[in-house]
Amino acid sequence: MRVGVLALQGAFREHVMLLEALEVAAVSVRLPQQLEDLDGLIIPGGESTAIGKLMESYSFYDPIKLRQGQGMAVWGTCAGAILVANSVLDGVEGQRSLGLMDITVRRNAFGRQVDSFEVDLAVAHLHGGDFRGVFIRAPWIEAVGEDVTVLARHEGVVVAARQGRMLATVFHPELTGDPRIHRYFIEDVIGA
Ligand code: GLN
C-alpha cells in the first residue's frame, strides 16, 4: 500500500512521519505524476488558499479528481477539508476546491477568540477512548449530504465526516502522535 501526502505547503511532514510509524510506504507528493500508483492521498492542514494556488500552478486539480474517480481514497485535514469540499463558505474571492465530498465547509469558523484550541472528541469507530482534537484556525463542517456519515462533533458542530473513500477532519490528527485516525484511514477507508 502506498499513501501520498500532498507536500506543497502546510503540515505534510507530520503526516509522513505518522504513516512511516505505521509502516506504510509514504510518498511526499510534489508532482501530479506521483498520484499514479497511490492507494490514498492526504491533503494536509496549512493555508487552503496557498495550497489551492500551488495546486493550480502544478496542475493538480484534474489529476486528483481523476485518480479519486478511479478509487484513490482521499483524506483532507483542516485546510485539506476545505479543499475536498463541494462548497466553501467565507472563502477568499474565487477560492477553488476539488468538490470531491458532499460537505459545506466554513473557513475559520471557530472565530478569533478561539483561533486555536484543543479538546477531547468522541470519534466514531475509534477504540481506546477520546481523541485529542487540535484545532488551528479550523473550519467547521456546516452541512453534509445524504451520503455523508458524521464521525465526530464538537458542541454539536460536525468536525469529522466520511463519504465512501473520502474522509474529512477539521482538526489536526498528525500533531498529536496518536495514530488512530491514520490507522482508520488506512484500514477502513483505503482498505474498504
Ligand atoms: N484557516 C486555514 C485555511 O483557511 C486552515 C487552517 C489549518 O489548516 N490549520 O486554510
Bound molecules: glutamine
Classified by CATH, the class is Alpha Beta
How many structural units, i.e. domains?
1
Share of helical residues: 10-25%
Low-confidence stretches: none
Description:
- The protein has a single domain (2-190), classed as Class I glutamine amidotransferase (GATase) domain (Rossmann fold, 3-Layer(aba) Sandwich).
- It is 24% helix and 33% strand.
- It has helices at residues 12-21, 48-57, 61-69, 79-84, 180-190, and strands spanning 2-6, 25-29, 40-43, 73-77, 85-89, 101-106, 116-121, 131-136, 140-144, 149-154, 157-163, 166-169.
- It has a seven-stranded mixed β-sheet. A three-stranded mixed β-sheet has the order 5-6-9. Strands 7-8 form a two-stranded antiparallel ribbon.
- A hairpin with a 2-residue loop joins strand 11 and strand 12 (166-169).
- Bound molecules: glutamine (GLN).
Q: Key terms for this structure?
A:
Rossmann fold; three-stranded mixed β-sheet; globular; binds glutamine; alpha/beta; 192 residues
